[in-house]
Design brief:
Shape: elongated
Radius of gyration: 23 Å
CATH class of the largest domain: Alpha Beta
Strand content: 15-25%
Helix content: 25-40%
Largest sheet: 6 strands, parallel
Number of domains: 2
Length: 400
């Protein structure tokens, strides 16, 4: 993959640099609940501002339905970004137009400004050429540092890369490098952990992975569907009855591709879906009719740990069980800690992504010991499916 980064951007002093960031963070009464995405863009913003650029940040926020919505303004996020980046950040109350052009023109070299929510204009999601041109009038250069929005062919994520010199920001470049190592050109053996509730939501991921990994570890309620597809009675467990044939097709595809699929053979069950519910650990063939599988068992976890020990690369998306409810977090925590230890001590390349996955790894206390943990959700899943991401393709074309 060929794309230009900030290493290739040249002198930027006095130049207006449009930086597409992902400032779509949780906001509660004006306070940011999770500043991870703000922190991710700090290296790019600081580097450009320190070099004398006029840094103009573009982002969407939420899903406004009928034009500007005060509840979805980026004003409060801009203030929070200033705190995170450690320098003043100006807020400009629109993202196009003559008043915006005047405001950007008044910015001094080395300053940072955040424009209002790009989705307040329908041209953003329509990738409208006129809207792209209006945005482009605000900048001399374009930097995309929002991998988490790269699966959308919108004006600020894809269109601008075709009309301004385009570069990947530090977070985007790090993400693309990590993903290339994980599935683009990985060192084998490769393991993939895929958890979550529904086979239907990750069918594309599963079918793509079995052709590319040596070991596919399936957890969460998704594993229940695969167990049921193998004729195992999963009692009152959540599973997708209409996906049983599809699960069989995934297993057949994996066998043909010589990919070993790992399903739990011992599980933790309970009759109530709540924290600290009475529970027991049983063989998968011993689940009672009124019991739900809420986690995989300790013997399965130990066996999966042994699998990871022989692998050189790991891709992770989704928890092993209902990790939000103790003690059904045990398998997720144990396997994550094993992966982290192998990353630190044995050179395992471990790449994880997705909001729930990040939450689970933080819960396990080991997110910072993985090789890379993506802040992306939908973009990470589409990458795992092997789909081309418009925001990345635009940079790749411009980088050649």
């Amino acid at each position: 993959m060929t794309f230009r980064t900030l290493d290739d951007i040249g002198p930027v002093a006095g130049k207006r640099v449009l930086v597409r960031a992902d400032l779509n963070v949780p906001l509660d009464h004006g306070a940011v609940g999770d500043a991870t995405r703000l922190q991710a863009v700090v290296p790019t913003l600081s580097e450009l501002a320190d070099a004398g650029a006029i840094v103009v940040v573009l982002s969407h926020f939420g899903r406004p339905q009928n034009g500007p919505d005060p509840a979805l303004s980026l004003r409060a996020v801009a203030a929070a970004l200033g705190s995170v980046v450690g320098r003043p950040v100006t807020f400009i109350p629109d993202c196009i137009g003559s008043a915006t052009e005047t405001a950007v023109g008044a910015l001094a070299s080395g300053s940072i400004a955040v424009l209002e929510n790009t989705r307040f204009h329908p041209g953003e999601e329509a990738n409208d050429p006129a809207f792209i041109a209006a945005l482009a009038r605000l900048g001399d250069l374009y930097v995309n540092d929002a991998f988490s929005a790269a699966h959308r062919a919108h004006a600020s994520t894809e269109g601008l890369a075709h009309v301004l010199p385009a570069f990947a920001g530090r977070a985007m470049a790090a993400e693309l490098d990590a993903l290339a190592k994980a599935l683009g050109h990985p060192t084998h053996p490769v393991a993939a952990v895929v958890g979550g509730a529904k086979v239907s939501s990750k069918l594309g991921v599963l079918m793509h992975l079995v052709d590319r990994v040596d070991h596919l570890i399936i957890g969460g309620a998704m594993a229940n569907t695969f167990l049921a597809a193998r004729g195992i009675d999963v009692g009152a467990s959540l599973f997708e009855r209409d996906m049983l044939q599809t699960a069989c097709e995934v297993l057949a595809h994996a066998a043909a591709a010589q990919c070993t699929v790992h399903l739990p053979y011992d599980v933790v069950v309970a009759t109530a879906f709540k924290a600290n519910a009475a529970h027991r650990t049983v063989n998968v063939h011993e689940v009672a009719a009124n019991e739900m599988i809420l986690d995989i068992g300790p013997h399965a976890v130990e066996a999966l740990g042994d699998v990871l020990k022989v692998c050189r690369t790991l891709v992770w998306n989704g928890p092993m069980g209902a990790f939000e409810l103790p003690p059904f977090d045990a398998a997720t925590v144990a396997l994550a800690q094993t992966a982290a230890a192998l990353t630190q001590g044995a050179g395992l390349v471990s790449v994880a992504g997705g909001a729930v996955t990040k939450e689970a790894l933080n819960h396990a206390g080991c997110a910072d010991r993985f090789t890379y943990v993506s802040t992306a959700g939908g973009a990470f899943l589409e990458w795992m499916e092997g789909k081309a991401l418009p925001g990345v393709l635009a940079l790749e074309r411009e980088g050649k």
